[in-house]
């Protein structure tokens, strides 16, 4: 029967009246009036051309209309290929971007985009050029000399472009450094993309349609470096001078910088170029969630409910970074200034993630903890924030004594401490090291500053997993410390990566554990009465359920996917335990 024979199920129809309950929203960057006039739904039936007062739109895209359910069903086999909850629009500053054509519920699939190409990251340690596991040089490709896993990987189709380019030059490579970044790999993805020109016209056309910012990139330090590490190597070392033009290589480098997505694999991290997903606009509070399926298709879902007319956004940079750091990254690598609601707000949606403690205010005036009174955030005191967060030379000012703080001092000091934090993180720190770092810097930065938050994120996992600090053995003080850290990081995550996000999911799990163990310990030792224990157990259960929901979208090969599976298992145990105690979960 048409409409049910193959593919996705037929969506319900939606009437104009139902649609009008969800009017088109103004877009976050630019306004809805920039969209084309064909937004207004036509009530002519897509199948027969006739009009009807009872016409209903396809509920999948809200873009095409049918005079009857029967005509919607008969058109479905054809329409489902183009039925999407979004469309690509154009804006003078943003370029192309994606806009929702209908209301999209949190968790709804927006797209599963097949890659144009997968390859090693530009900056990477030596990895096998077929399966991308780290290599140690014990097996080398017989033709080009690149270290690989074995002969099967050596013969994989994906490896052929660089293999042919290197072996054709008659000078196989000699990789001698392993376990650290190796500049030889900077050319691989570029060579693979270049090879599409002669091997796959459709993918090549899609690639060439992507933004490269060639002109602006040509004046950057990155362009000067990659001239030596990529362009010259491909032209001279690989002797491709008769085959490719230098400008084409530079354009491809620009396409990679602007569009590549990092893909985390169990043992390494690689990159992929995607055509449709490249149209996602950046926001520092993204409304979509990205994962990769087993075939490395980029799966995009709504992280939060998205209203028709809203732009679909993804975060191109680190979310747990200060506004200055995010802006600098976006400007130098993607050539734009982000004007999302988080960036233009000096308080970053009340999180004060970039704030420092005022050097002039007396210590008792400065907020040490995020203040929450009856679930409402209270403005901290004695914190300095930028007057204009989008300007690197903005004056910073204390929100209590109004004294200015030198912006240069803040930038330099933040960079130094950030380096110290990164070094700490790279050494697999223990609880003591993290606590010492936090104590040292908590008189300088506001407690939600991203430098402190990143360390707190590490620390909240260590309480409960480090030897000697296993969950069952944690003292009440340490359990409370873990819970406090979880609540603090979660409250920031709720504001900047709301809904379905790995950060929220993984912290919710730790929060569940800390409340659960605290409850058990206090209940069994009769420190709290039944009623309070019941309330706390319900709170732990709710955190666990939300964790399982959020992480249910993660692939099982990823640690967060495994955590989601664990959480689902623990929900059953929790229900059983609460039943035994005579407590309800609902
Ligand atoms: C991955 S591409 C997105 C698609 C691109 N707009 C196009 O037309 O091909 C990234 C580029 O889009 C633009 N862009 C994305 N998000 C933006 C934002 N929030 N504000 C301004 N420009 C943005 C920038 O030029 C950025 O380098």
UniProtKB/TrEMBL annotation:
Keywords: Metal-binding, Zinc, Zinc-finger
Keyword Zinc attached: yes
GO molecular function: N-methyltransferase activity; protein methyltransferase activity; S-adenosylmethionine-dependent methyltransferase activity; zinc ion binding
Residue ranges constituting the SET domain according to the UniProt record: 84-317
Residues of the MYND-type domain: 45-83
Keyword Translocase (UniProt): no
InterPro entries according to UniProt: SET_dom (IPR001214), SET_dom_sf (IPR046341), SET_SmydA-8 (IPR053010), Znf_MYND (IPR002893)
Pfam families (alphabetical): SET, zf-MYND
PROSITE patterns: SET, ZF_MYND_1, ZF_MYND_2
SUPFAM superfamilies: HIT/MYND zinc finger-like, SET domain
PANTHER family: SET AND MYND DOMAIN CONTAINING, ARTHROPOD-SPECIFIC, MEMBER 2, SET AND MYND DOMAIN CONTAINING, ARTHROPOD-SPECIFIC, MEMBER 4, ISOFORM A
Protein name per UniProt: Protein msta-like
Origin species: Hirondellea gigas
Lineage: Eukaryota, Metazoa, Ecdysozoa, Arthropoda, Crustacea
């Amino acid at each position: 029967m048409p409409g049910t024979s193959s593919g996705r199920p037929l969506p319900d129809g939606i009437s104009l009246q139902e649609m009008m309950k969800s009017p088109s929203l103004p877009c976050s960057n630019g306004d809805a009036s920039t969209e084309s006039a064909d937004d207004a739904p036509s009530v002519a039936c897509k199948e027969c051309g006739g009009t009807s007062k009872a016409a209903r739109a396809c509920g999948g895209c809200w873009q095409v209309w049918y005079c009857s359910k029967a005509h919607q069903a008969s058109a479905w086999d054809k329409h489902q290929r183009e039925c999407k909850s979004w469309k690509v629009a154009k804006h003078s500053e943003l370029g192309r971007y994606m806009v929702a054509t209908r209301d999209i519920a949190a968790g709804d699939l927006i797209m599963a985009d097949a890659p144009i190409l997968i390859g090693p990251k530009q900056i990477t340690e030596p990895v096998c050029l077929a399966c991308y596991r780290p290599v140690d040089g014990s097996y080398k490709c017989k033709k080009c000399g690149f270290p690989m896993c074995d002969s099967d990987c050596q013969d994989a189709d994906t490896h052929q472009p660089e293999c042919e380019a290197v072996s054709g030059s008659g000078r196989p490579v000699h990789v001698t450094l392993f376990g650290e970044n190796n500049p030889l790999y900077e050319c691989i993805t570029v060579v693979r993309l270049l090879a599409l020109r002669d091997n796959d016209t459709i993918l090549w056309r899609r690639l060439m349609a992507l933004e490269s910012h060639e002109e602006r990139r040509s004046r950057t330090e990155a362009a000067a470096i990659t001239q030596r590490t990529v362009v010259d190597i491909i032209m001279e070392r690989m002797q491709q001078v008769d085959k490719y033009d230098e400008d084409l290589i530079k354009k491809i480098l620009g396409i990679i910088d602007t569009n590549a997505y990092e893909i985390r694999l169990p043992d390494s991290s690689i990159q992929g170029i995607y055509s449709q997903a490249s149209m996602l606009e950046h926001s520092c509070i993204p409304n979509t969630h990205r994962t990769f399926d087993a075939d490395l298709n980029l799966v995009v879902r709504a992280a939060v409910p998205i209203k028709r007319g809203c732009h679909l956004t993804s975060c191109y940079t680190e979310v747990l970074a200060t506004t200055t750091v995010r802006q600098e990254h976006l400007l130098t690598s993607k050539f734009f200034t982000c004007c999302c609601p988080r960036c233009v707000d000096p308080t970053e949606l009340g999180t004060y993630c970039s704030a420092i403690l005022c050097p002039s205010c007396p210590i008792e005036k400065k907020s040490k903890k995020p203040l929450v009174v009856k679930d409402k955030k209270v403005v901290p005191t004695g914190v300095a924030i930028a007057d204009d967060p989008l300007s690197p030379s903005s004056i910073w000012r204390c929100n209590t004594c109004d004294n200015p703080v030198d912006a240069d001092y803040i930038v330099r000091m933040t960079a130094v401490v950030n380096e110290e934090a990164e070094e700490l993180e790279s050494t697999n720190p223990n609880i003591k090291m993290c606590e010492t770092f936090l104590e040292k810097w908590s008189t300088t930065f506001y407690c939600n500053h991203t430098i402190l938050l990143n360390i707190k994120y590490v620390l909240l996992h260590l309480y409960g997993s480090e030897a000697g600090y296993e969950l069952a053995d944690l003292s009440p003080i340490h359990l409370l410390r873990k819970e406090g850290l979880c609540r603090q990081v979660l409250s920031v995550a709720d504001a900047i990566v709301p809904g379905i996000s790995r950060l929220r999911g993984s912290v919710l799990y730790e929060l569940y554990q800390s409340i659960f163990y605290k409850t058990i310990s206090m209940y069994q030792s009769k420190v709290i009465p039944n009623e309070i224990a019941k309330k706390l157990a319900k709170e732990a259960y709710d955190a666990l359920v939300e964790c399982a929901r959020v992480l249910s979208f993660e692939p099982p090969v990823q640690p967060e996917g495994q955590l989601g599976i664990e959480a689902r298992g623990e929900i059953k145990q929790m229900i059983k335990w609460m039943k035994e105690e005579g407590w309800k979960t609902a």
